[in-house]
């Protein structure tokens, strides 16, 4: 992975690569955020496709640069389709990012997230602290998509989980944490209004999917993707009067974001 001092430049480089290559990001995501996350990817420079039918997901993932799996409005059929797509992505070497929305809140959600992790090769798991904790401890409680644990409470279990699952975990909160079990990075960018709009966490996951399509290092892709998204959130918050205008300003900020801005504004530190 790039060193801490190299990450600001790497963030700018990855953003340039996305805009130049317009990678196709295959999303099997939830009804609540489908439209907004597609627009977030478009504004960033990627090409989104939302395809969840079991009959086409294996073919579609073959055309994509990465696969985003989000269990926000899961059904048994959707989980089966996610596993089909994930298995094919694993064979093809396509990076997979999992968003275990609400894991820990119900047995179905927790089991679905663990099944995907067991049957596919997930490069990055992005979730709040409660969701991440639930993947390592069946007793950890969640509350839907809302975190009831702080990021700091997930540091140790995230490192252990990342090692045991051989994946990278991105734990998002007031200060984000990305770890592969050996190295860890914190990202301090962001804005309070990001928690006032449904789908910002899911959008962060989608952004990481785009960065994974151009950066083969999951730790670097997750850290730089979150920095880019959070900086856009800061810029949107500077203009927004509330959650409604923030949503629109966030799309505009992503679209107008200049690589040199992300290099200058990014705030990385070691964990």
Automatic annotation (TrEMBL):
Pathway: Cofactor biosynthesis; thiamine diphosphate biosynthesis; 4-methyl-5-(2-phosphoethyl)-thiazole from 5-(2-hydroxyethyl)-4-methylthiazole: step 1/1. The keyword ATP-binding applies. CDD domains: THZ_kinase. GO terms for molecular function: ATP binding; hydroxyethylthiazole kinase activity; magnesium ion binding. GO terms for biological process: thiamine biosynthetic process; thiamine diphosphate biosynthetic process. Keywords: ATP-binding, Kinase, Magnesium, Metal-binding, Nucleotide-binding, Thiamine biosynthesis, Transferase. Its cofactor is Mg(2+). Gene3D superfamilies: 3.40.1190.20. It comes from the Bacteria. ATP binds at residues 126, 172. Its EC number is 2.7.1.50. Substrate binds at residues 50, 199. InterPro entries: Hyethyz_kinase (IPR000417), Ribokinase-like (IPR029056). It catalyses: 5-(2-hydroxyethyl)-4-methylthiazole + ATP = 4-methyl-5-(2-phosphooxyethyl)-thiazole + ADP + H(+). Pfam families: HK (PF02110). Catalyzes the phosphorylation of the hydroxyl group of 4-methyl-5-beta-hydroxyethylthiazole (THZ). Belongs to the Thz kinase family. This is Hydroxyethylthiazole kinase. It comes from Desulfoprunum benzoelyticum. The lineage of its organism: Bacteria, Pseudomonadati, Thermodesulfobacteriota, Desulfobulbia, Desulfobulbales.
């Amino acid at each position: 992975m790039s060193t801490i001092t190299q990450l600001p430049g790497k963030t700018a480089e990855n953003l340039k690569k996305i805009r130049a290559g317009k990678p196709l990001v295959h999303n099997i995501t939830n009804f609540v955020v489908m439209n907004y996350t597609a627009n977030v990817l478009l504004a960033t420079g990627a090409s989104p496709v939302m395809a969840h039918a079991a009959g086409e997901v294996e073919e579609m993932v073959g055309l994509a640069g990465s696969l985003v799996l989000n269990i926000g409005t899961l059904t048994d059929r959707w989980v089966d389709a996610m596993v089909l797509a994930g298995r094919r992505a694993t064979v093809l070497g396509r990076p997979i990012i999992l968003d275990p929305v609400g894991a820990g809140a119900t047995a179905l959600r927790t089991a679905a997230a663990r099944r995907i992790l067991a049957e596919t090769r997930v490069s990055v798991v992005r979730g709040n602290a409660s969701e991440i904790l639930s993947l390592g401890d069946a007793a950890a409680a969640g509350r839907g998509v809302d975190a009831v644990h702080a990021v700091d409470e997930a540091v140790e279990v995230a490192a252990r989980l990342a090692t045991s699952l051989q994946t990278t975990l991105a734990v998002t909160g007031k200060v984000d944490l990305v770890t592969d079990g050996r190295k860890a990075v914190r990202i301090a960018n962001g804005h309070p209004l990001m928690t006032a709009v449904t789908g910002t966490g899911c959008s962060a996951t989608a952004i990481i999917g785009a960065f994974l399509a151009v950066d083969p290092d999951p730790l670097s892709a997750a850290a730089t993707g979150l920095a880019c998204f959070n900086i856009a959130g800061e810029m949107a918050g500077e203009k927004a009067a509330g959650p409604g205008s923030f949503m629109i300003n966030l799309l505009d900020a992503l679209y107008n974001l200049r690589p040199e801005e992300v290099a200058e504004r990014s705030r990385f530190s070691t964990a």
